Amino acid sequence: MNCRDTLRINAQGHLEIGGIDTVQLVKEFGTPLYVMDEEHIRKMCGIYRQTIEKEYNGNGLVLYASKALSCLAIYKIVEQESLGIDVVSGGELYTALKAGFPTDKIYMHGNNKLVTELQMAIENKIACIVVDNFTELDILDALCQKYGVQQNILLRINPGVEAHTHQYIQTAKVDSKFGFAISNGSAEQFTQYALTKKNLNLQGYHCHIGSQIFERDSFALATDIMLQFIADMQKKYQFEASVLNLGGGYGIWYTDEDVKTNINCYAEYVKTIITQLRKKAKEYNVKEPFLLIEPGRSIVGEAGITLYTVGNIKEIANLKKYIAIDGGMFDNPRYALYQAKYTACIANRANDKATEIVSLAGKCCESGDFICEDIPLAKANIGDIIAVFSTGAYNYAMSSNYNRNLVPPIVLVKKGRAAYIVKPQTFEDIIRNDVLPEYLK
Ligand SMILES: *Cc1c(COP(=O)(O)O)cnc(C)c1O
Question: Model-level pTM?
């Protein structure tokens, strides 16, 4: 088992997180339960911020990609750590605003932002909108004219870097639905067109080469290509980009097939980018841009675990052993979506060696509803608590009420204290928006 510094096994052989025994957490809060370690989140925010401060004289800002986990408390923590955020929908923006997040540190993304979302962004004077396409330039420019404002924008550019990762989470190939490619000239046309817009202030460019990437070279290559593009646009159109947003995508530990991560890995990603940025800015004779990076998964992913209770066990001789748990694709759809891998342990007997190959089956009426398939685990009994690691990103954020299951609550733990940051749903919540028209009654 991987023991992050936030996780340990105590004298009773129980898994502990943030100074609290998980068996105790389950007694108090029940299962399924998301648990987030506050210190780990803060530590990750800190390492990114400090690296930009130290290595780039603070000429940049870390934006937490809040689609990874969006709720009031997380925005508060991120704000206290002096980060900015990016949001990708009206819902995320609304949540951030309700958390009192400073609007001058909010950036907005999306490949098809709704007019209502753009209006919301303008009305709340957010820092910058990352424009994805020509239509959006038209719509946004017209809106800004109406509101009588100048909006800062970046353009989403596709540098065509192949990052070695699962294809569903790869977003910067030439045929991506996001942004425009440099290689076929469309990014240049995009720039030309943006520069004609009177109510938009083009600050620079954005790219995001994918997710769960461990190869630092991919980021160095993307940085080089983006700087070349900046230099090219400067030569051709005298447009000097002052901002470069290089997205997120830094990989985290899910299983031992991944690179073993530690806090320094993340400083190294940023150092790689900054070293390259400085070198290439000089080489291509452009000003060093204000740097934005957008880590999401790496800030909250390893900070989170999910706790489940074993309900039944079904063994199909020589084929498969199912450990049925009280969660499933409604709290974590990532295996069902793209066979994402996770590591698990029995939290109440965390020292027990893994001796079996089992599948953690969810309770949804889908045969593909697994949290993990064919993973090593110690021999489980009914009533045991299962902990699944690295569930802080894209779990709660992707949860649903499928089968009208209740989305589990989230507790935030720190120094032996635990508190809800998302409270449990009730069945009343489930029918809150259901309507019975008169004629059906
Ligand atoms: C998803 C996304 C991120 C965050 O990616 P992670 O892999 O979670 O770090 C950052 N920027 C953009 C534009 C994204 O779409």
Answer: 0.96
